[in-house]
Amino acid sequence: MLEVNASAILTRLRSAGRASVSALAKDAGLSRQAVSRSLAVLEAMGLIEMSAPDRAAAAAGRPPQMVRFRAEAGHVLGLDVQPGHVRGVVADLAGTVTTEATGPLRRDGAAALAGSLAAAVRDLLDRAGLDPSDVWHVSASAPGIVNPVTGHVALSVSMPEAVGDAILAGVRAAVDAPLYVDNDIKLATRGERWRGAPHVEDSLVFIDWGERIGAGIELRGELYRGASNDAGDLGYLDLLAPQSEAGGDGDLGPFERWAGTRELLRLAGAGTIAELTATPAGLAAIQTVARRFAKGIAAIRALLDPEVIVIGGDIAQLGPVLLDALVDALRAEKLNQPRLEISTLGADAIVQGAIRHSLSWVERERFDASAIRKET
């Protein structure tokens, strides 16, 4: 029971950051003696810090003994690997981002990618003032189909140099810590659920809408991957994108050619998304692409019936103008449509999802009762 109590107290203390021994005992429903024994274990593990009694906190009687969770005892890394660059963040054990940096990635082969990724990770650690041994876990994203068990990239149209184990090799050359690699949109979905707008729904779809279009699907509160681990790859829909209307970009899927960023800018005759709302041609292009994209939303609705769809990616910067166009386009649908929202995290969704995954590993492998038992 000592380890079970210690794990329960650690969970409460991580949430509060700092609390008195008596408050922890009351919250956990334990005796002060049981709490004190558990705190001794956690202190020996370096996870908490006992401070002197706070005499200012009590006008009369014995001042409370205070305890602080040592969020700085370890760190996790979140890496957003994209064609030509990687964005890395360092977070402490409370999930607070302490350092972030973006570095270049070479594209002339897997070995070059791995070498430049290792250099970027080392630079990130230098900026954070950390040694590799301070890192408890790393989670990295990849644009493409990833085997989350092995971390190997099976397919990446936009980043072929990442296919295989290049990301694994690059990170492991810089940090000897447990490593997880997953699809970027699946990690972004987890980030939206954790740090985006609060959602209590059991079913949620996150769509990354830009030059490429992909989705992360949560059903009954769990990420749904599909039999081949590529559920949600909307860019490859071809039933809704007539070839006569879709562009000829061979590196994009049919739906991406029909409703992605390149097509939107081509229709508007614009160079950037930021220009679109300033001209009649831009607004007309938004309406056209929104009508096309709405067909993808209607397909998701017919198959999955999610309660909410969160839209992120480059096109999401259009905000209410985009949402209004999509709602108008969906009015003709016979089925009730899901609520539509714009992502509140933007580009942060991927790294936040990576941090969340690493912290889940820490909670399971370092903070669970069985893990504490191994340390005592």
UniProtKB/TrEMBL annotation:
MF-aspect GO terms: DNA-binding transcription factor activity
Annotated CDD domains: HTH_ARSR (cd00090)
Pfam families: MarR_2, ROK
HTH marR-type domain ranges (all copies): 6-55
Cross-referenced InterPro entries: ArsR-like_HTH, ATPase_NBD, HTH_MarR-typ, ROK, WH-like_DNA-bd_sf, WH_DNA-bd_sf
Family recorded in the similarity comment: Belongs to the ROK (NagC/XylR) family.
PANTHER family (alphabetical): BIFUNCTIONAL UDP-N-ACETYLGLUCOSAMINE 2-EPIMERASE_N-ACETYLMANNOSAMINE KINASE, ROK (REPRESSOR, ORF, KINASE) FAMILY
Protein name, as recorded: Transcriptional regulator
Species the sequence originates in: Phytohabitans houttuyneae
